[in-house]
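Deliverable D5.2: sample structural annotation.
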Amino acid sequence: MFTKAVYAARRQRLAKDVAKGIILILGNSEAPANYPDNCYTFRQDSNFLYFFGLNDPDLAAVIDAETGEEILFGDDVSIDDIIWMGPQPSIADKAASIGVKKSKKYADLHKYLVSAKSAKKEIHFTPPYRYHNMILLNSLLGLPIDSLKKKASVTLIKAIVAQRIVKDKYEIEEIDKACNIGYAMHYTAMKLAKLGMVEQELAGLMDGIARQHGSMVSFATILSQNGETLHNHTHNQILTKDRLIVIDAGAENNMNYCSDNTRTIPSSGKFTQQQKEIYNIVSDANNLALKMARPGITYLEVHVAVYRLFAERLKELGLMKGNVDEAVANGAPALFMPHGLGHNMGLDVHDMEDLGEDYVGYGSAAKRSKQFGLASLRMARKLVPGNVITDEPGIYFIPALIEKWKKEKTNAQFINFSKLKDYYNFGGIRLEDDVLITTDGCRLLGAKRLPITVKDVEREMKDNNK
């Protein structure tokens, strides 16, 4: 945990920004995996962690935005709990540890909210994403479950986003730690990958490092030789000669801050000429984004610049054609990169996505495009110091998508469909780094950058298949 002063200052700002009504922040509860006593690894709600710092299940808290009163709700453990889990701090002690003066039993939360509603106070809550909290909000507030997302407080959402989107020095330190764990995960996979291994072996090694040095992986590890499937969570293939392995993985450190890196490595330890040509385009796009990312520019502008680089370079290879600017304006590069350049990152690997992607990545100054590919850009805002974002360009050859565009003549004036037949078994390449926006530019997070050039990757893997 951070000091109680850090959490108190965050809550004070939140109360000031919301101004009126009661702010309700629900923690998470345990979630059974296959029977009640066998639960998934507990993960606290990120908003609760940010404002109240307690990483225990079955807690809730309120802040009166007008008076500043704060109350933590939860129950002291029973003797049965002590037998199985050992002695635990009291709710009063937990509250004191984060600078909250009042604590009450969890059952008192309902009475408190009924009283607040009778006093005509608005109850601000965030959109629930777990069914337990959906049912709980239905019980507490009497709102139909299917209305909760719509009834969530836009005022509270915007106030939270305004705070969490700019990381303070304490958070940046923790994200650096998470990125160091991510480095160890990826570097281990790069050094140990060899022909004949099952993908699961590498994925298991990486996940183990995340648990060894932090609390868990920051998302389900993506590791596949079918990298054209953007989020491929199957790990059942044997590493085969001349294939590419897309590895997209990250860690949560013990403070639940996240990392998210992607590297694409050759199963054989050496890239083929065709693979090098595409890899170097993606690597140059990654470096272009790093060069451009700075305060005052929008990440939408950076994304479009990456699309333009792709159009230029793929045209040089004969895979695209026509006017580059027109190709970009018409969304033709999205055939090869149908996702956005990056997203915000912090306590969530897709930071604050539970609050609504448009509030987080767009705000009031930008509007999400409806164009294929560009519509998937999660972060389009003007960058400011303290933003933590991912830089993850990729080029993928997705046969089903290529065939669909070919049949429908989508962007036919910009795509050489006949040349793409030679790439149907290529897979994909994605290269992702985590980036902090500074006062005059940006820097990579973590102590070291993972090997990214063709030369460096091949050097690290040169002995893998001996």
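Annotation notes: The mean pLDDT is 97. The domain at 4-164 is CATH 3.40.350.10 (Creatine Amidinohydrolase; Chain A, domain 1).
The annotation will be released with the project's public dataset once the embargo ends.
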